[in-house]
């Protein structure tokens, strides 16, 4: 048939019959964007330990957070509701990039010689190229509703800072970002991206805050850490009128916003004719991307509809789940945040500067820590050379250079696919590819020119 | 309604009824990827002047090109067929990113306060982030079919080089790229991207070729140019066994491959309930992106179905259409290519190094030159500050940082939208957004910090 600019006879729009075993991707429509976020807390057999007030060591009261968060987010942080409605202005912004694609990795499967059916949920086509925007627009919205004028935050590799820069601009707020100094210097494109959206960015620790000056004195020449940058941002928010703080991971409300990822993926797998996946791999830093893709599948497990093995893939250089302790710890280096029960490497942990792969936080989100502690999730640590080797195999096959962070999840999935090839099995594997690596190319250069240490 | 992970009642897949005036994007399905490329040559009222053999000044014979191109592409270069079938392996690769989205720029419209309905066709989600991949995979395919082992090419900003690096890897070919020295140095992420896909990249002019050495002697300390890099790549291909040359724009077969952009856009506009657009803006360098989006709409004009005003948007720093001469000229600086009838600034043109916006070629594709000469297309020149100002307005509204090149088309469309607001009209405007600007952030930094000259 000569396709001559008109419509094929079956009509202009695809039906489910168009999606089959040879298909690469399923596009949902805007009307398929979830109307509600999923909160797993009421579904957990054992409730997660509450955050504590660092002074009284009593469970945190909502008002303890009111100096830095708006009530809309504080309510979500402690919510016992399973489904929380997504406000229409947030859903409207989601339409700029959601539903995100779920892609069958046919070419990766062939490159690996596996009978596993590999799918990946790709968040890299969002504004700024990562999943972070899912929570950024929600947080900016609730703060704008509360009359806040400015949000202050920290960022490591820069995904969160650029997501919040976009989101604050969309809701008419100012944005101030404290970026871990080592990535501010080594990945300069990231702060230009934030500045393009109108944000102001400072390398951290800076001399703009008491916390920053104290940290510079305590750790001279430090490359910085997320914990340090959080201390600076929290201090600015807590001491300024009309200014709130915004966190890109770890907290319950951030994981909540990210569940749109997993909710969409469940729908999309069904359109591919799959049931629930046998294995799910997500990269694990603070836990928001991991929770976003995994928690809706964990619900399917808990309700007996699925039996998905969920694996958190963390970097060997910041291995909170596999090497950390499960205890109450601060979210920041200076001890300004509430105490969170989490797997932690200690609040003053600074990853080795040789580590190029993102995911540098010292702790793991309390919900994901609890889920891991209760045996509902596995965890592996991946060294960075294995991660980038996996990322390049993926890029050549799928035409997408993944974010450094995502490479850890891909490495985990590649291990599983190779095991399946050896065992002659054909599991369904789902990978959370949290972002695009176009701004991580200096790390790829390190891998390619052989200077990347195997840490 | 609480969306609880199941399906909405109307069934899992959208129908055309889901797309309405409030929709942001239309996703076509894989089965909607065109099966044929569109060749405008047989539809043109006056045939375009043929390329000439530089020795005899006679029209080029197919065998004149056989030293550097495979017969499959040579046949396309001179084809009189309106529809040329896309080989299945190429169409299979297209599925990694096609159909590309057509997006209604609701938020941009609101930011501009215009009643114009603005749509953009976005090619930035392709492997490597630009439209170039559309032709790269086709060229790699025909060369692989012909038994070629290696492709050599030039690249300016790096989009073409990285597209060909991806495509050659997909078809098992080697890839060698000569990159204009100024962008090799100023945009280092680009060559890392090519290297990630396995290509070898040299800054040009290099000392690896006779052409490069002669150019270094003739123009000491030159920042390089596309014309120079083409000379080097053609020399390598013409003098090596099993090695062919590949060009990322200008030639008929390259424009042909890019017509998938416009063919999809026509379908997608209909799904939005639009007829053909009133105005179309594409950025103009060598002409392949412009031709790719515009030629299918020009066909609609020629056949009386549409009346779209097509505007080529070129940089004021390399204004071949608005400032060049329409004459036969070489495609490269050293005079190794056939003579092409085109609007040209002269084959030894080197854009001012202050120009940050891509689109640096000295000439314009013969087909687009002819179409312009015949009055079927308009052209405007845009200075770079206006281009980047437009790009930032677009980024803040749409959440996509456009490629430097694409900013020129956006600037043209913004002029039109503002005129419409003043005149109280509501035209339908289509913009070709040829790529993502994530690797162009150094140019955005120049604009933001005020060091960008208004050239």
Descriptive overview:
Two copies of one chain form a homodimer. Chain A has 455 residues and is of the alpha/beta class. Chain A has two domains: 25-38 and 87-130 and 253-449, Rossmann fold (3-Layer(aba) Sandwich); 132-251, Rossmann fold, CATH 3.40.50.1100. In chain A, 38% of the residues lie in helices and 16% in strands. In chain A, strands 1-4-5-15-10-11-14 form a seven-stranded mixed β-sheet, with helices on both faces. In chain A, helix 4 (133-145) crosses helix 5 (159-170) and helix 8 runs antiparallel to helix 9. The longest helix of chain A has 20 residues, at 404-423.
Short description, anyone?
Chain A has 455 residues and is of the alpha/beta class. The first copy, chain A, is built from 17 helices and 15 strands. Chain A folds into two domains: 25-38 and 87-130 and 253-449, Rossmann fold; 132-251, Rossmann fold (3-Layer(aba) Sandwich), CATH 3.40.50.1100.
């Amino acid at each position: 048939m000569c396709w001559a600019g008109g419509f094929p006879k079956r009509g202009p729009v695809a039906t489910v019959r168009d999606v089959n075993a040879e298909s690469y991707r399923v596009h949902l429509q805007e009307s398929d964007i979830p109307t509600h976020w999923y909160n797993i807390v009421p579904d957990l057999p054992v409730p997660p330990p509450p955050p504590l007030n660092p002074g009284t060591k009593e469970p945190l009261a909502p008002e303890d957070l009111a100096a830095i968060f708006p009530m809309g987010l504080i309510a979500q942080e402690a919510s016992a509701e399973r489904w929380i409605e997504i406000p229409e202005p947030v859903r409207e912004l989601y339409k700029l990039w959601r539903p995100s694609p779920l892609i069958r990795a046919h070419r990766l499967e062939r490159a690996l010689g596996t009978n596993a059916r590999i799918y990946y949920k790709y968040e890299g086509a969002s504004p700024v190229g990562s999943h972070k925007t899912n929570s950024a627009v929600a947080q900016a919205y609730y703060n704008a509703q509360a009359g806040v004028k400015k949000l202050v935050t920290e960022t490591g590799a820069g995904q969160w800072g650029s997501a919040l820069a976009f989101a604050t601009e969309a809701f008419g707020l100012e944005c101030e970002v404290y970026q871990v100094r080592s990535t501010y210097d080594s990945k300069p494109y990231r702060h230009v991206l934030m500045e393009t959206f109108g944000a102001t960015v400072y390398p951290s620790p800076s001399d703009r805050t008491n916390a920053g000056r104290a940290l510079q004195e305590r750790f001279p020449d430090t490359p910085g850490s997320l914990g340090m940058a959080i201390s600076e941002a929290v201090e600015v928010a807590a001491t300024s009128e009309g200014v709130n703080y915004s966190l890109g991971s770890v907290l319950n409300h951030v994981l909540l916003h990210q569940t749109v990822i997993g909710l969409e993926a469940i729908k999309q797998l069904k359109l591919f004719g799959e049931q629930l996946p046998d294995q799910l791999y997500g990269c694990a830093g603070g836990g928001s991307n991991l929770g976003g893709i995994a928690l809706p599948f964990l619900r399917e497990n808990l309700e007996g509809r699925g039996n998905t093995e969920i694996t958190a893939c963390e970097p060997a250089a910041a291995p909170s789940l596999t090497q950390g302790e499960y205890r109450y710890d601060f979210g920041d280096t200076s001890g300004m945040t509430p105490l969170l029960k989490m797997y932690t490497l200690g609040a003053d942990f600074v990853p080795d500067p040789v580590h190029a792969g993102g995911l540098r936080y010292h702790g793991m989100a309390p919900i994901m820590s609890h889920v891991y502690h209760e045996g509902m999730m596995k965890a592996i640590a991946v060294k960075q050379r294995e991660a980038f080797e996996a990322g390049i195999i993926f890029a050549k096959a799928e035409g997408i250079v993944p974010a450094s962070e995502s490479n850890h999840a891909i490495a985990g999935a590649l291990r599983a696919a190779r095991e399946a090839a050896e065992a002659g099995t054909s599991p369904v594997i789902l990978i959370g590819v949290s972002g695009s690596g176009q701004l991580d190319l200096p790390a790829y250069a390190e891998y390619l020119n052989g200077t990347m240490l195997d840490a």
